[in-house]
Design a protein that fits this description.
This protein is an alpha+beta fold. The protein contains 15 helices and 15 strands.
Length: 408
């Protein structure tokens, strides 16, 4: 049975939980026990570097037994960290990254030191907190490795990159892009200056137009254009860009920038040589043609076109069966196969060509195997000289000789 006196006594006991005596009892709970349970790896260090106390998590990170904690010293625990004594003596907060453990089991940690004050605001040591950042460092090292690979590839291929922020109007060039423009690595470009690097005329007008369309319409571009570097050199580049959109609006333009000057110079030289060769072949008083492995014409000169009365476009892809008498076409195909199989040329062979309309022509024909870049036969080259006039003269001479013999 509960009496009023008992109820008042319990109530008084409950109220005593908030009195100063009770609060002082709470404050007397061992500091060591509270610190041990902290989830954050934390330690208390004296001014002389002695380890006064630490959480279980901090001790586990550094593999220290709890029993010997009073004999430990922070300078010994972190003996590989440079200038640690000087930084602690400065009595200011600081942090650093460091490794711990052997190479095979090495972990990366980030440790911070914060001044530890007593109730009179006197510094009595440092509060040390440590985080295991091994995963973060591994990711950073992987990113660094990938960036190194990309940088190496960029330098070898002479491909740079650039980025334009539509909102801030800031333009970024990577080191390789700056090298292509022959500007210092400290150079900070803007859009107007970047456009002025392009050669006046077509290239500058073109880049201005396609860059404007990329910003306002999100249209990608990839163009071969000419620039004039800071040193005054004219060079060919491949400039490409793609819009990055957010909520349907263009926020950035990301692109590549490649030095293709040597490639363009080689292509130009090849084109010049091809034009020279074409001009030479077209003006030869000989019929010249190239056939593939199926005896289809893939190249013809002017004389061949005039003889057959057709344009190059009409002759490309045609075989002798499309152009000549069937018997003549069969003989020509057999010759083609002989050259392709034996890889031996036919030189100076007299042939007779009969066109679909019945016109007959005497030729002195040569067929030579054609090889690709890998040394494999890919067709043949044919050269024919019209000897109809010579054959006619021979016939006339033969007839004259026969006539003279009869008269004698």
């Amino acid at each position: 049975k509960t009496t009023g006196h008992t109820t008042r006594r319990k109530k008084k006991k409950f109220l005593n939980c908030n009195n100063p005596r009770t609060l002082r009892a709470v404050e007397r709970i061992e500091q060591h026990y509270l610190l041990r349970q902290l989830p954050q790896a934390t330690a208390l260090v004296g001014l002389d570097g002695s380890l006064l106390d630490a959480s279980d998590t901090w001790l586990a990170l550094f593999e220290l037994p709890p029993k010997n904690i009073m004999n430990a010293n922070i300078f010994k625990v972190l003996e590989n960290v440079e200038c640690l004594k000087e930084n602690i003596s400065a009595q200011k907060a600081f942090s650093f990254r460091h490794s711990h453990g052997e190479k095979n089991e090495c972990r990366w940690l980030e440790t911070s030191f914060t001044p530890w004050y007593d109730e009179k605001e006197n510094i009595i040591g440092s509060i040390v907190q440590t985080n295991d950042i091994s995963r973060e460092v591994e990711k950073e090292l992987e990113i660094e490795r990938i960036n190194d690979i990309l940088k190496t590839k960029s330098e070898v291929a002479q491909v740079g990159c650039w980025e334009y922020d539509v909102q801030t109007e800031k333009l970024y060039w990577c080191d390789e892009t700056k090298k292509i423009h022959q500007v210092p690595l400290s150079y900070e470009p803007n859009v107007n200056e970047a456009i002025e690097f392009y050669k006046p005329g077509y290239s500058r007008n073109k880049i201005s137009m396609i860059f404007h369309k990329a910003i306002h319409e999100g249209t990608p571009f990839n163009e071969r254009l000419a620039i004039v570097t800071q040193k005054g050199e004219e060079r060919w580049v491949q400039s490409a860009g793609k819009a990055i959109k957010k909520n349907g609006e263009v926020v950035k333009i990301f692109g590549t920038f490649q030095d293709i000057h040597d490639q363009v110079m080689i292509e130009t030289k090849v084109m010049e040589n091809q034009q020279l060769l074409t001009a030479l072949i077209d003006n030869l008083p000989l019929n010249v043609f190239v056939k593939d492995l199926d005896s289809k014409k893939i190249l013809v000169n002017k004389s061949e076109c005039e003889y057959l009365g057709k344009s190059p476009k009409e002759l490309i892809g045609k075989t002798d069966f499309d152009l000549y008498d069937e018997e003549v076409a069969k003989i020509s195909r057999e010759e083609d196969l002989q050259v392709i199989k034996t890889l031996k040329p036919i030189l100076g062979k007299e042939t007779i060509s009969i066109k679909k309309n019945g016109q007959t022509t005497n030729f002195l024909t040569s067929k030579i195997p054609l090889f690709d870049m890998e040394g494999k036969v890919s067709g043949l080259i044919g050269i024919s000289m019209d000897i109809s006039a010579i054959k006619k003269k021979e016939d006339q001479l033969r007839n004259l000789i026969n006539l003279t013999s009869i008269q004698n």
